[in-house]
Amino acid sequence: MYSRLRDLREDRDMKQRELAAYLNCSQQVYSNYELGQRDIPTDILIKLSALYGVSVDYILGITNNPVQNK
Q: 3-class SS at 13?
């Protein structure tokens, strides 16, 4: 469901455990986000958006435009 999460992470050569540590969650919880088995909390979406420099809408697949509107 959230395949963009994996793509964004891999584009930055990050491991799930590294990103989980940044987000202060377990690797399993983060894996569940990528697999769409767990909803991503708003605060996590905001952190991911800031880390990757993309919009939340892009992460969620609402738009194909990764640019954040400011």
A: coil
